[in-house]
Amino acid sequence: MLILAILVLGLAAGWVSNLLVGRGEKMSWAQLLAIGIAGSFMGGLLGSLIFGDGFAIRPSGLIGSIVGATLVLLGVRAISKRP
């Protein structure tokens, strides 16, 4: 059940980050999932630890997941646009 929750929340974080910085570019579900899970790990874990929520699913972790996924997406786009 935990793995399913991680996948769903990762996909949601990737989707929201794509909406925030999408610029009309289409991304596959696999790309959104990879970006969302990486961002969730980076932002959600750090957000939960900074705000003292531990490893439980809390709003600070969800917000951190979206922020982390957005930063990962911006990084991927900056690297992919290099010649």
Keywords:
83 residues, mainly alpha, 3 helices
Descriptive notes:
With 83 residues, the protein is an all-alpha fold. It has one domain (2-19, 27-80). Helix content is 77%, strand content 0%. The protein has 3 helices and no strands. Helix 1 (2-21) packs across helix 2 (29-50) and helix 1 (2-21) crosses helix 3 (59-80). The longest helix is centred in the middle third of the chain and has 22 residues, at 29-50.
- Give the biggest beta sheet: none
Q: Provide the helix percentage.
A: over 70%
Terminus-to-terminus distance: 42 Å
The mean pLDDT is 81
Sequence stretches where pLDDT stays below 50 over 5 or more residues: none
How many separate structural domains?
1
Oligomer: single chain
Number of strands: 0
Order of helices and strands: HHH
How many separate helices?
3
Relative strand content: under 5%
Rg, Å, rounded? 13 Å
Class derived from helix and strand content: mainly alpha
**Structural shape:** globular
